[in-house]
Amino acid sequence: MDQAQTTAASGRPGAGSSKFAVGSVACAGVAGLVAGALLPLVGRQLRGALGRFLPPPPAQQPAAKPAAGTRSSADAKAAAADVGDTPVDSASLLAAGEAPATLTSEPTAATAAGTAAATSVARTDAGVDLADVAVTWIRPPHPNWRAPERLLPPFPVPSAADRGGKGEEDGREDKKAGDEGGEMGVVSVRVAECSSSVLYPLVISTVVPRPIAFISTLSKTGIGNLSPYSYFNAVAHNPPLLAIGHCWSSGKPKDSLTNILDTRELVVALMSDWFVEAANHTCGPYPPDVNEMRLAGLTPVPSVAVKPPRVAESAVNMECVVRHTYNVIDRDGSVTTTVVLAEVVMFHFSEQVVTRTPNTGKLIVDPVKLRPMCRLGGNTYGFVSHLFDIARPDKDGRYPGHDGFVRSERDKIISQ
């Protein structure tokens, strides 16, 4: 196994040699790190990264003037300064500091309707120019929502009376909409009647977007294995625990799982857009003696607490030991999946993707700088393109300091 120290390539995002480890982090800080690194994909608007779905850029069009209600970059910077956001010194990232730092990149102006203009993405024969793909801070979809106003989806929703409850006006009992217990406009699936080949595309296209665990392992004989897994997420922070679902193939565990069960060690890296093609290349059904990291042109870096190497191109690497394993049995009594709970014993971050929270100065990962990839159905990947904050209600369901609305401090800046 080639575990040579990586050589930093000038200008490569996330692959710089200036990385540092966090060996002992307070529980609250770990919670922020895990949430910042793994959960920004959930519940946010995504835009596909496949070039063929994107329209070509207009030819030689002059720069558009800001629409009414939008703000210039200079205005946004000034507004950020007003709320105390200041850049963080990378040399003091691990030291406790009083000065708040920028949580993410500056907010981008949005229209009064709460939406942002679509980002113009350059298309070339080589694919999408990621340098032109901007991550935009926008207002929430319904910034003036007040509880308990009803928010309707873009499809018919039955009323309380239609659902078989009492009509609000006269208290009468009405039958459920649909035929023989079914619901109008709803496609229902009985899992017990479906084969695995039917359930697989249904599940991976339903539970989206999913973060991706880029897992590095070593066999008992020292052969490296590297492969992405999207049945994955963080499930605890004290201690930090990651859950990874390893599906079996032809009644046997795959190479990554075999290595994990044999050695009880692994490194979980996160996938960013700057090396997604190389990372995807590792998912082929290669023989056990093939080193996917070398095959994909990726760079191994020696770990500190475990034997499997880290991935230099990844801005986040988590050294892990196995805490628990759980075999999933199908209705025929066969093992189909093994769920691994991996405890993180050491984090490694590129200093380019970390910052501190504005109010408490806790170390976190900036999703704008991490540019994390996610998986959807089929062969489709996605990346974060639009972000928004929503304030949390207090115990009385109110939003103190936000005029009763769900808007956050960042949204106040954007909407000005």
Strand content: 15-25%
Helix content: 10-25%
Shape: globular
Please provide the count of β strands: 20
**Which radius of gyration do the C-alpha atoms yield?**
24 Å
* Overall average residue pLDDT: 73
Q: Distance between termini? A: 56 Å
Name the poorly predicted regions: 1-27, 39-125, 166-181
Structure notes:
The chain is an alpha+beta fold and 416 residues long. It has eight helices and 20 strands. The protein has helices spanning 27-38, 73-82, 196-206, 255-263, 276-281, 292-295, 367-370, 409-415; strands at residues 19-22, 46-48, 123-124, 127-128, 136-137, 210-211, 213-218, 224-229, 232-237, 240-247, 265-270, 300-301, 310-311, 316-329, 335-350, 354-356, 363-365, 373-375, 381-384, 386-387. The strands form six sheets. Strands 1, 7, 8, 9, 10, 11, 14 and 15 form an eight-stranded antiparallel β-sheet that branches. Strands 2-19-18-6 form a four-stranded antiparallel β-sheet, with no helix packed on it. It is globular and about 65 Å long. The N and C termini lie far apart (56 Å). 30% of the residues are buried. Mean pLDDT is 73; it is low at 1-27, 39-125 and 166-181.
Secondary structure layout:
Blueprint: E1 19-22, H1 27-38, E2 46-48, H2 73-82, E3 123-124, E4 127-128, E5 136-137, H3 196-206, E6 210-211, E7 213-218, E8 224-229, E9 232-237, E10 240-247, H4 255-263, E11 265-270, H5 276-281, H6 292-295, E12 300-301, E13 310-311, E14 316-329, E15 335-350, E16 354-356, E17 363-365, H7 367-370, E18 373-375, E19 381-384, E20 386-387, H8 409-415
Parallel strand pairs: 5-20
Antiparallel strand pairs: 1-15, 2-19, 3-4, 6-18, 7-8, 7-11, 9-10, 10-15, 11-14, 12-13, 14-15, 16-17, 18-19
